[in-house]
Write a sequence for this structure.
């Protein structure tokens, strides 16, 4: 049985947790004051990869496109997954890339990795950009089957297939859980609700072993890290950065306050008499069915 | 590249169990209004084209025409029964570049036709991923989660796009995207590189559109349109991707069976644990389901494990990235009123907001604005509800 090779693409994102995130007085994100971390959706993708390591001893490579400071995020990801290789694609020419040009960099980087990947994981979406496009676009450029909203997966190394469960939300109708069987290689955008389960004793032992190894490795993470520029990953300069981006940001403005859709009656939160009336109206609204 | 290479707006239609999803009808409505203006302004006859993939969907094209489509390209095939990304992406890309289809849409433009001018997808679990892969295949630009569209002739000066010189881009789609905070609006353009040093076509100009934003056109059964049947070509290996099972499930967090919804936002931050307890108590008095705003699903506070896993979960998010609700009573507690949240609750009947900041946007979206800190106000509400219940029981 061949070794399973897994790559994870991750993103450095603003830390939205209270105390770390800083907002400008107008409610917009203060990027200068907000520190950056491994994005929460990226972290789930890293967990998903670790599951394959515990279960199948998979080799894990983690990659990101970002500034040199993204190093420490890769260290954090290694601590979570006992990654065997870390890649930071960093180059001034990558700056200003839209999702298509970012996907081009990630594709080039993944193709440059030593092994041919069986599975590539990404998060569901970034918590700052929130487009959710980079994963599927990277998958498409790699020629891999894209599977989004994956809540569970199992690899069958002998048959070289993966079985996944996908959670598809059909707004306004219902949700669907879909089970699929797909030949490797596949690209999986992992759903936020994914939770790895380690059921057997041997899995729990493997889990302990790799966690221990991860702690040691991540302390010397630079040994595992390659920082590569555009030339080194062989990215086509016409397809990356601003040059390779079909889209531009034309303008950014404050969303103008729309016309008030309702005329609110403003009351004082200490005024018990007023609140008594509001509660009466609430109860009236709720009881309409009963009266009828 | 000349302007005549690109024509029409193509809309990727979603449907389930023989019913067209609302967002698809909304997109057709908006495309209809947009292209009516467009054709008047540019004296042209470009069309609203619905693209429909599925199996046993022959009834649907007429519905799309009644709602404003000029033409429907319909690929009806057992292999298209449910969405598989690779297969769907390739078929949509085939349709988008097919000149024979284009000749049936509008003969006059067919000879020069290369690709659609614009392309719309729904910004939901299906359209988001599909739009990304289709646009990767077509190697053009995509803006996601759009809530306003404008066609304009723009003068652009851009280092890469125009080589630093001012150039006019005609019929450019301004795609407005509210950012995650709900306070900023970013306008995204998809522009050809006209810089002689690096010329490249970027069409179609594509976007995914937020459900619930645009209005559906009232269906008109006398509307005429062209139905074009398309026989897709499949790659054998893509058919090895198999859907084994498909189960319809109801979310554990059920909003529809509750007449009241109590939601909270970042305003709980001063003492999240205690505030959420208060909200829980209030909701229980009103037999309300509890909702949250999107930022809270990112778990910004440290709270007990129970509170975290019960409340700060994506299933409770109300708004664009979550559920749309319209209860009899909606209480918005510590919610500033970002557009993303509003779109998920504005159809509620009676809306009460509790907020210390009288200038919060939520004030324009509620019937009663209770000014004050939730720590102080909620206990008064709870006490009052209990009192009034007793009166009835007595």
């Amino acid at each position: 049985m061949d070794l399973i090779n897994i790559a994870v693409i991750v993103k450095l994102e603003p830390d939205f947790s209270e105390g770390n995130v800083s907002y400008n007085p107008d409610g917009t994100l203060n990027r200068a004051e907000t520190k950056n971390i491994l994005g929460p959706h990226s972290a789930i993708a890293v967990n998903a990869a670790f599951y394959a390591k515990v279960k199948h001893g998979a080799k894990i490579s983690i990659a990101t496109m970002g500034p040199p400071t993204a190093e420490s995020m890769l260290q954090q990801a290694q601590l979570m997954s006992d990654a065997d290789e870390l890649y930071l694609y960093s180059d001034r020419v990558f700056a200003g890339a839209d999702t298509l040009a970012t996907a081009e960099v990630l594709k080039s980087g993944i193709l440059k990795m030593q092994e041919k990947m069986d599975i590539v994981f990404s998060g569901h979406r970034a918590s700052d950009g929130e487009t959710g496009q980079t994963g599927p676009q990277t998958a498409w450029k790699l020629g891999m089957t894209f599977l989004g909203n994956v809540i569970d997966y199992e690899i069958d190394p002998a048959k070289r297939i993966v079985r996944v469960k996908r959670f598809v939300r059909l707004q306004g109708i219902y949700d669907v859980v879909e089970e699929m069987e797909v030949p490797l290689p596949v690209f999986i955008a992992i759903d936020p609700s994914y939770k790895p389960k380690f059921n057997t004793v041997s899995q729990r032992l493997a889990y302990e072993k790799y966690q221990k190894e991860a702690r040691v490795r991540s302390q010397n993470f630079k040994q595992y890290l390659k920082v590569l520029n555009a030339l080194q990953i062989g990215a086509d300069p016409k397809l990356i950065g601003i040059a390779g981006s079909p889209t531009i940001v034309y303008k950014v403005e404050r969303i103008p306050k729309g016309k008030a859709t309702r005329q609110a009656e403003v009351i004082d939160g200490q005024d018990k008499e007023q609140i008594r009336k509001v509660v009466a109206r609430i109860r009236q609204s709720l009881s309409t069915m009963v009266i009828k | 590249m000349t302007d005549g290479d690109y024509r029409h707006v193509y809309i990727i239609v979603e449907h389930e169990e023989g019913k067209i999803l609302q967002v698809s009808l909304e997109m057709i409505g908006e495309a209809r209004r947009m292209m009516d203006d467009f054709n008047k302004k540019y004296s042209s006859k470009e069309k609203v084209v619905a693209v429909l993939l599925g199996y046993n969907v022959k009834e649907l094209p007429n519905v799309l025409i009644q709602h404003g489509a000029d033409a429907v390209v319909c690929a009806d095939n057992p292999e298209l029964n449910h969405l598989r990304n690779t297969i769907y992406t390739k078929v949509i890309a085939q349709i988008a570049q097919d000149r024979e289809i284009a000749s049936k849409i509008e003969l006059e433009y067919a000879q020069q036709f290369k690709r659609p001018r614009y392309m719309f997808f729904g910004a939901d679990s299906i359209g988001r991923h599909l739009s990304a892969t289709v646009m990767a295949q077509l190697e053009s630009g995509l803006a996601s989660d759009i809530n306003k569209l404008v066609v304009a002739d723009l003068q652009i000066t851009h280092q890469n796009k125009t080589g630093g010189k001012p150039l006019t881009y005609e019929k450019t789609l301004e795609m407005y995207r509210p950012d995650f905070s709900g306070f900023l609006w970013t306008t995204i353009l998809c522009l050809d590189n006209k810089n002689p040093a690096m010329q490249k076509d970027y069409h179609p100009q594509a976007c995914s559109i937020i459900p619930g934003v645009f209005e559906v056109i009232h269906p008109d059964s006398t509307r005429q349109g062209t139905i074009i049947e398309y026989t897709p070509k499949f790659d054998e290996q893509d058919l090895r991707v198999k859907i084994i099972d498909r189960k319809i499930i109801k979310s554990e967090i059920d909003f529809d069976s509750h007449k009241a919804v109590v939601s909270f936002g970042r305003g709980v931050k001063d003492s999240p644990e205690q505030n959420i307890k208060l909200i829980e108590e209030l909701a229980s008095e009103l037999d309300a389901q509890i909702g949250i705003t999107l930022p809270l699903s990112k778990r910004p506070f440290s709270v007990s494990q129970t509170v975290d896993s019960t409340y700060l979960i994506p299933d409770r998010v109300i708004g664009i990235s979550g559920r749309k609700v319209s209860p009899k009573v909606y209480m918005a507690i510590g919610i500033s009123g970002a557009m993303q949240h509003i779109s998920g609750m504005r159809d509620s009947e009676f809306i009460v907001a509790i907020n210390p900041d009288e200038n919060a946007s939520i004030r324009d979206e509620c019937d009663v604005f209770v000014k004050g800190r939730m720590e102080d106000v909620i206990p008064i509400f709870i006490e009052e509800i209990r009192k009034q219940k007793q009166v009835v029981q007595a």
User: Anything to note?
Assistant: Chain A has one domain: 5-239.
